[in-house]
Write a structure and sequence with these properties.
The structure holds 2 protein chains of 2 kinds.
Chain A (H helix, E strand, L loop, with lengths): L8 E6 L3 E8 L2 E9 L5 H16 L8 E5 L2 H7 L6 E6 L5 H4 L26 E4 L2 E2 L5 E3 L3 H13 L4 E5 L8 H13 L5 E3 H4 L5 H32 L5 E4 L5 E3 H4 L12 H13 L5 E6 L4 E7 L2 E2 L1 E2 L2 E3 L2 E3 L3 E2 L1 E4 L5 E5 L5 E7 L18 H7 L17 H16 L3 H26 L8 E5 L3 H12 L3 E4 L6 H8 L2 E12 L5 H20 L8 E11 L6 E5 L6 H17 L7 E12 L14 E2 L4 E7 L4 E9 L7 E4 L2 E5 L2 E5 L3 E5 L5 E5 L6
Parallel strand pairs in A: 1-4, 4-11, 5-6, 5-9, 9-10, 13-23, 23-24, 29-32, 31-33
Antiparallel strand pairs in A: 1-2, 2-3, 7-8, 11-12, 13-14, 14-15, 14-20, 16-19, 17-18, 21-22, 24-36, 25-28, 26-27, 26-28, 30-31, 32-35, 33-34, 35-36
Chain B lengths: L9 H25 L3 H4 L4 E6 L5 E6 L9 H10 L10 E4 L11 E10 L2 E11 L28 E5 L2 E2 L1 H9 L4 H29 L1 H24 L4 E9 L10 E10 L2 E5 L15 H15 L8 H4 L2 E4 L17 H19 L12 E10 L3 E10 L26 H7 L2 E8 L15 E7 L4 E6 L20 E5 L5 E3 L3 E6 L4 E5 L14 H9 L10
Parallel strand pairs in B: 10-11
Antiparallel strand pairs in B: 1-2, 1-5, 3-4, 3-6, 4-5, 6-7, 8-9, 9-10, 12-13, 12-16, 14-15, 15-20, 16-19, 17-18, 17-20
Helix pairs in contact in B: 1-5, 1-6, 5-6, 7-9
Chain lengths: 690, 552
């Protein structure tokens, strides 16, 4: 990263409530700001944020070198069912696959069931069957019925469809029929957005492929329009840097490339935050971190191994499983707005119901009549009612106490303080179990990770969670509440392509493998050539999905084609990974399922540990009494303003660190230092008790 | 159990509840991750539980309801045969015999005591459906078995491990009696690993809170779940509700339908299920031992009360059953029992049918009540020896405010179907049709969910077919004036055009060019069909869910 001579980088993340902007020059953060999101037309909020940045930090728009954008517009189109009117072409006999799905249900004890497949994307009336059949080995059994394609496309267009998805059986083995059908549709209806399953997700299992391809078509026109508008408003603002957007895997891509496979953006919402957390971890010298992002309604947990977020191959949107690679984020229904309630036997529960932003916690004074986690934090003295949210939202401590007393404390025979502590303890216990499971599922002991507290609520709970999990290091980034925007600038430019490759490892022809990767690399390379790449070379990585023969699930293993014995290494690495994640590794025959190439460039923070200025004890401007769980009880905590904690500043618990976007709670056994990137690194003094 | 002087801190009790649920989840996770069998990995046919020393369930994690509470009789029997005082750290006990507290032979129960200061403070247990436990057929679920000895090896309550040392004689006996000893031992070790996780974390918890104090909290949690269940049951109108359901046949005597009769006696926050009137035990393997009948009852109670009530022994206390000895729901040895899953589904649906009278405002019409089990086996040059199974659902019942869902798993099971692209890679079989079964949902203000049509063509000779159907000779009834869903139907179309109707259960051989077409049952409709909205009808017609009504 070079210094002052490079132009500024801007990142704008549009969330449900706020639009966050971060401006960096080289490795220095120039500033961060928040404006309210404009839901109807998000680009208005973005334009406003840019205007403010230009005014506040003397940024010349034409000098902006990178502009990275995180958007949930595609996600919202699905959640609100505002996607395109979609038509679907399938193999004869298979038009209902989209609706039938895998016949599983997620809510086991419901008597009246809900539809769990996304049939709404293309209801029966907009699904057409096309003659022609490809066999499992890719051979053509029956030629494509081209006349049927013409007739179906014409009928669907006459019915007003705005996009068409095409999914034929075994197109991952032989895409010829899908491609030909695509040509026919394109020739008759130029400009109509098309999604072919062999391009969107060339892997076996027809339902999963159909669903992801249909989602791709459903959001394509929406995202097209949005990115077009965004490009125009950037041009109006005088920003010439190409628009880049965050993808679900945690990399960014140019808008032009992203528009071709919009489904890859669908689950990008939480990705930037994790990348930001990863960067803070790396800067703190900890490449293995667990990020805990606590917002108003949920707690998102993600694992970063060796400086890379764990990616999974299937995500979930609006309850529908969807086979696109995404950062493995696990959500628990618990956040600052989570409501505390008593069950029929008087047991205390927290969440998953949330007071949301409206009416919000009782202390917001907007009519919230139920006690939330935020109300408890206020009663315990963790939050400052005057400076909360930078002073923009004064909190009503009396109201919080009254509601807490009436709804929880009195029925339980407790004081308001005891009830508030109880809410924290119950919530922390639930979140700690969630974190434990996420790390154990990857075969890791959580104790060797550092916890990164993100979102408005993460830093409030991080040390308590760490205590429960016997984790001894907690990192609170400089701006945990706008970390997503920060993460946008830390993410690499990345393109990923995969292909089905069903072959046993034993006796595998190396030439076939090399050729398949060669094809993927050529296509990835062509995509990367369209990107504005940061300085430095392109990193090419290869992976194979491998399983034992007979297994239905697989593991992603890195492949080093330059090694002396790539296949031998692949098998050995598969055994090691299988043993770590699944607890055993038989020397049984294995096979490849899919191949994957990932080309990446840039990406801040990998391996760059921030310098640490010499430590010096921070002055304590004031103190405040807070209430902590046993054994501490009521203690006097030093209260720091985060803005005053410059690099090298050292603090000791009990302490409260206040800043506009969050509050950090430091219990008595913890001490912290601020590194030169501004991250607050907290460590436990002694071994956790009991 | 434990004496305690200081009153319990209600917050700590709640924290401990999260911890023990977390421990059960972690055990289940370890079980699923370290098992080998596809039936565990993909069918999730395994569960993990914690018990108190008196055999009361403390917590359970199960991915499918058919496992609900099924370990209770097994743990009870082990406690009878092996007194607590004889148990030591690391000891492991196993059993699978349905007539000694098991379910069916493939399900093996593993139990490990948790000790503190030489005293058993809890039991950690896991149940896994093993891929094969010997017997007359690979997979140990022969549809034509007529006694349990044909179904696999019967393991009475025995000690597998004393501390860290395995009983070598027992291990050698077990290995000798199963078809895939490595897989068998691998899955057994996964169960032991899960129990070890439970024992370790429960030990940590006792360390932190002290075992007396912890014991008091456990009692409190069980008491709370009981109170909540009673509270929810008390909201049902007291009364006697009777319902009768039928199963097609037992797979051996094809012309004899099986009857399940239940009377649910609701009152005072309790429910009693009396199965008097149910068919005598069957010759074929549809018999269901009490653990399965109880799982069906607990599932139904949980569904009609509140599924959020933490699962522990307290939930089960207000529920009692009368299971006539020698009947389909409580057979005598040596009746075969391997195909009990279909029976558990039928029992569940019969109970729900009875309770629908008690809570008509929130109960749906009957679901298809069946999961069609197809298995194809054979060998050819391309695929080698192959065995592929397909599990196929029907429609769900319509509710008071919603249409049924098409082709979806319901009640006690939750299995995935087989993708055409997986089937055709694994076997010389082609799937020709995979469509919603138009018109199969029961009519009503809210329509029942549709069944499915699947048609398979054989591309090789000598493929054995096993077909285990249900709802071929009965229909899912509608509710509140709604119509019944269509019955299931399967037909074999031989290469020369001859058609053979499948009588629900069948073993046969198919050759190249032969096809089998299966149509699963639809769910029942809810409410008067005349009150159905015109727009809903028009949409159904456009989307191919109903047929155009015949011209007047």
């Amino acid at each position: 990263m070079s210094g002052e001579e490079t132009g500024p980088w801007l990142a704008v993340d549009v969330g449900g409530t706020f639009t966050d902007l971060v401006c960096r020059r080289g490795s220095k953060t120039v500033g961060v700001l928040k404006v309210p999101s404009t839901r109807a037309n998000p680009s208005e909020g973005v334009a406003e944020a840019i205007r403010r940045a230009v005014a506040a930090w003397n940024v010349r728009p034409e000098s902006v070198q990178r502009f990275v954008h995180g958007t949930t517009v595609a996600t919202n189109a699905v959640l609100e069912r505002r996607g395109a009117r979609l038509g679907l072409l399938t193999t004869t006999g298979f038009k209902d696959v989209l609706e039938i799905g895998r016949q599983k249900r997620t809510r086991m004890y419901d008597l009246v069931l809900d539809q769990e497949t996304p049939g709404f994307l293309a209801p029966g009336a907009r699904r057409r069957e096309i003659g022609g059949r490809i066999a499992a080995d890719g051979a053509e059994i029956e030629p494509l019925d081209e006349a049927a394609v013409e007739a179906a496309a014409d009928a669907l267009v006459a019915d007003g469809v705005e996009a068409i998805a095409i999914v034929f059986l075994f197109s991952f083995a032989n895409p010829a029929h899908e491609r030909r059908a695509g040509e026919i549709v394109r020739a008759r209806h130029p400009g109509l957005p098309l999604s072919l399953s062999s391009e969107v997700d060339p892997a076996y299992r027809e339902y999963e492929r159909t669903a992801v391809t249909a989602f791709d078509g459903y959001v394509k026109p929406v995202l097209d329009r949005y990115l077009h508008d965004m490009g125009e408003s950037l041009a109006e603002a005088g920003i010439a840097a190409p628009l880049q957007v965050m993808m679900s895997r945690g990399g960014v891509a140019s808008a032009a490339v992203a528009r071709e496979r919009p489904v890859r953006l669908l689950l990008s919402g939480p990705a930037a935050g994790v990348v930001g957390g990863m960067r803070a971890g790396t800067a703190a010298g900890t490449p293995d971190v667990i990020t805990v992002d606590i917002g108003g309604t949920s707690c998102d947990i993600a694992l970063v191994e060796a400086g890379r977020p764990v990616v999974r191959t299937e995500g979930v949107i609006a309850g529908y499983p969807i086979r696109v690679p995404m950062i493995d984020v696990n959500a628990i229904g618990a956040g600052g707005g989570s409501i505390a309630w008593l069950d029929a036997a008087g047991g205390l529960h927290v969440g998953p119901r949330s007071a949301g932003a409206e009416p919000g916690p009782a202390c917001y004074g907007r009519g919230g009549a139920e006690a939330t986690v935020t109300d408890a934090s206020l009663v315990l003295g963790y939050l400052n009612p005057e400076t909360f949210a930078g002073g923009t939202l004064p909190l009503d401590a009396d109201r919080a106490r009254t509601v807490l007393t009436e709804t929880i404390a009195e029925p339980m025979g407790l004081t308001a303080e005891e009830a508030a502590l109880g809410i924290h303890r119950v919530l922390n216990a639930a979140m700690a179990e969630g974190i434990r499971l996420v790390s154990i599922r990857r075969g890791h002991d959580p104790r060797r990770f550092a916890l990164v507290g993100l979102g408005g609520g993460g830093p409030v709970h991080a040390c308590a969670l760490a205590e429960d999990l016997a984790i001894t290091k907690v990192i609170v980034p400089r701006h945990p509440g706008v970390l997503s925007a920060d993460g946008l600038l830390a993410a690499p430019v990345e393109q990923e392509l995969s292909t089905a490759f069903a072959r046993p490892l034993e006796g595998l022809d190396m030439a076939a493998l090399t050729a398949a990767y060669g094809d993927l690399d050529a296509r990835c390379g062509a995509l990367m050539a369209r990107e504005a790449l940061p300085d430095g070379g392109i990193e090419v990585r290869h992976f194979a999905d491998v399983c034992y023969i007979g297994q239905g699930y697989h593991l992603e293993v890195a492949v080093d084609l330059a090694a002396a014995d790539p296949l031998g290494d692949l098998y050995r690495d598969f055994l090691v990974l299988h043993d770590r994640i699944h607890g055993y590794a038989a020397e049984a025959p294995a096979r490849i399922v899919n191949l994957r190439a990932v080309h990446g460039a840039g990406g801040a923070g990998r391996g760059e540990v921030a310098a640490r200025s010499p430590g010096r004890r921070a002055s304590i401007p004031e103190t405040r009494e807070i209430l902590l769980p046993a054994p501490w009880g009521r203690v006097r905590a030093s209260v720091h303003s985060r803005d005053a904690l410059t690099p090298g500043a050292m603090i000791s618990g009990a302490a409260i660190v206040e800043q506009a976007d969050t509050t950090t709670l430091v219990p008595p056994d913890w001490h912290g230092i601020v590194d030169d990137d501004g991250n607050l690194i907290l460590e436990r003094k002694a071994a956790p008790h009991g | 159990m434990a004496e305690h002087d200081a009153p319990l801190d209600p917050i700590t009790v709640e924290v401990v509840r999260h911890k023990i649920d977390g421990i059960a989840d972690e055990m289940e996770d370890a079980l699923l991750r370290s098992s080998f069998s596809p039936i565990v990995k993909e069918g999730l046919d395994a569960s993990a539980s914690l018990f108190l020393p008196d055999g009361t369930t403390l917590a359970q994690a199960c991915a499918i309801p058919i496992h609900l509470a099924t370990l209770i009789p097994a743990v009870g029997r082990i406690l009878t045969d092996f007194p607590l005082a004889t148990m030591g750290e690391g000891d492991v006990y196993i059993l699978n015999d349905p007539y000694c507290g098991g379910t069916h032979l493939p399900d093996i129960a593993v139990v490990m005591p948790v000790l503190r200061g030489g005293r058993v403070v809890a039991l950690s247990a896991a149940m896994t459906h093993h891929q094969d436990v010997g017997g007359m057929a690979p997979g140990s679920v022969p549809t034509n078995a007529t006694e349990i000895f044909q179904e696999g090896i019967r393991i009475p309550p025995v000690q597998l491990r004393r501390g860290e040392v395995f009983d070598d004689t027992l291990v050698r006996m077990l290995r000798q009696n199963v078809r895939m000893p490595e897989v068998f031992m691998g899955d057994l070790n996964a169960q032991i690993a899960a129990c070890t996780v439970g024992a370790r974390r429960l030990g940590d918890l006792a360390e932190r809170y002290g075992d007396n104090h912890l014991g008091a909290m456990f009692d409190e949690l069980i008491h709370r779940s009981e109170a909540m269940t009673r509270d929810a049951l008390a909201r049902l109108p007291a009364g006697r509700y009777r319902h009768v359901g039928h199963m097609d046949n037992d797979g051996v005597e094809l012309d004899r339908p099986l009857r399940i009769e239940v009377e649910a006696v609701v009152g005072d926050g309790t429910v009693h299920f009396d199965f008097t009137g149910t068919s005598d035990q069957a010759k074929g393997p549809m018999n269901c031992v009490p653990s399965g009948s109880a799982a069906a009852a607990y599932y139904a109670v949980r569904a009609v009360t509140d599924p959020e009530i933490p699962t522990n022994g307290g939930c089960f206390r207000p529920v009692s059953l009368h299971l006539p000895e020698g009947s389909l729901v409580n057979p005598r040895a040596p009746a075969p029992v391997n195909a009990r899953t279909a029976t558990i589904k039928a029992i569940t649906n019969t109970i729900l049918g009875a309770l629908a009278e008690a809570a008509p405002e929130r109960m749906p019409a009957a679901n298809s009540g069946a999961l069609l089990v197809l298995a194809f086996g054979g060998a050819d040059a391309t695929h080698g020896t192959f065995v592929v199974g397909d599990l196929i659902a029907g429609g769900s019942g319509a509710g008071p405010g919603a249409d049924g869902v098409d082709v979806v798993e319901s009640d006690a099971t939750n299995c995935m179907n087989l993708p055409a692209e997986a089937l055709e890679m694994e076997a010389p079989i082609r799937l020709l049709d995979n469509s919603l079964r138009t018109g199969s949902g029961g009519e009503g203000t809210n329509r029942g969910g549709l069944g499915i049509v699947r048609e398979y063509e054989m591309l090789a000779d000598g493929i054995t077919l096993s077909h285990r159907g249900e709802r071929h000779f009965s229909q899912a009834p509608g509710l509140a004036g709604g119509g019944a869903g269509q019955a299931a139907r399967s037909v074999i179309i031989r290469a020369d055009g001859r058609e053979e109707e499948v009588p629900s259960k069948l073993q046969t051989v198919l050759n190249r060019g032969d096809r089998i077409r299966v149509e699963t049952a639809g769910g029942g409709g809810h409410g008067d069909p005349a009150a159905r909205a015109d727009a809903a009808r028009a949409r159904d017609l456009a989307d191919g869910k109903i047929r155009m009504p015949a011209a007047e």
